[in-house]
Specification:
The protein is globular. The longest helix is centred in the C-terminal third of the chain and has 23 residues, at 296-318. The chain has helices spanning 34-45, 61-69, 127-145, 174-183, 201-217, 232-245, 284-294, 296-318, 327-336, and strands spanning 47-54, 93-101, 104-112, 160-165, 189-193, 248-249, 256-259, 262-269, 272-275. Strand 2 and strand 3 (104-112) form a beta hairpin. It has a domain at 45-74 and 86-252 and 280-317: 3-Layer(aba) Sandwich (Rossmann fold), CATH 3.40.50. The strands form 2 sheets. It has a 6-stranded mixed beta sheet, with helices on both faces. A 3-stranded antiparallel beta sheet has the order 7-8-9, with no helix packed on it. The protein is α/β, with parallel strands linked by helices. Residues 45-318 form the Septin-type G domain.
Length: 337
Amino acid sequence: MSELVPEPRQKPVVPMKPVGINTSLLGYIGIDTIIEQMRKKTMKTGFDFNIMVVGQSGLGKSTLVNTLFKSQVSRKSSGWNREEKIPKTVEIKAIGHVIEEGGVKMKLTVIDTPGFGDQINNENCWEPIEKYINEQYEKFLKEEVNIARKKRIPDTRVHCCLYFISPTGHSLRPLDLEFMKHLSKVVNIIPVIAKADTMTLEEKTEFKQRVRKELEVNGIEFYPQKEFDEDLEDKTENDKIRQESMPFAVVGSDKEYQVNGKRVLGRKTPWGIIEVENLNHCEFALLRDFVIRTHLQDLKEVTHNIHYETYRAKRLNDNGGLPPMTVETEENHESNL
C-alpha cells in the first residue's frame, strides 16, 4: 500500500502592487489648477496659527512677537496693565487676532506664559504649560469624535513654541534643559537666543554652538525634527537650519528709525542703530522667514500628524479603544439604553 504524500501547502496569493506608469498627455487637462483652487479656498476661510512664547520675564518676548507679525499682537500690547506684578505661579494667557495680508486671513493666537522661570524655586514650572498644550489636544479630540461634529473644528492646538534663552554666553540653565526635554515631545519647540545685541559676534557664534551641543548631549530634539524630514530636499534644507541657524540669535523692536534714507525697524544704542531685519546685525529675518514664509504649513502638519496623533492614540489606548466621552456622546448613550 503506497503512502499518502501530503500536497505541498500553497503560498497565499499576494496582491500585486499597482504599478505607476508615467503617461504622456494628449492635451491639457487642468490638474495644475488644484493649486489655485486651494488658494481660493484658503483666502475664503482663512487659517489658524497658534504660537506660544516661553521664557523668563525681561527677554523681550512680547516685542519679538509684535516684530514677527508687524502688529501689536502680544498680550502686553492688548490692554496689559504695566503695573501687573509677576505671578507667583506660571499662568497661561491667550489672546486672539485676525491678521489679513494680500486677501489671506490668519486667525492668530498668541499664548503667553507669565511667571515662567521667575520664581526662587522653578521646579516643575513647565507642568502648567504641558497641561495647557494637552488640554487643547483633548478639546480637538472631543470635537472630532462627536457624531454631529462641526464642519470646521476650531483649532486651538499650539503649532509652535518659541523658547527664549537668556544671552548669558555660558551655557543653558537646568530649567532650559528640563523644559525642552519634556515639552519637545508634545509641541514644536524653536529655541531662540533673546537680546542677541548684548553679545559680540564671536560670543554669539560660540554660544550658539554650545547650545546646540548641550541639546544634542541631552537628547533634546527641536523643530524641525530629523525623523520627520520627508525627502532628501527636506533633509538638506533642514540640516542647514539645524546645524547653522538654530538657535536663532534675535533682536526685536517695533520702533522705526531713519537709516541711509530708509525707515527700518531697529533699536537705538549709543553706538548706532541695530537693524532688526539686517542679517549682519541679528538673525531675526531668518527666524521670520522660517516660521512664516517657509515652514508655517509644516508646523501645522507636524502638530496634527505627529504630536496630536500621538496624544490621540494614547488617549484611545487608555480608554480601551473607545473615544473619550463628551456631553453629546453621553446623551446619545443614555438615550440608547
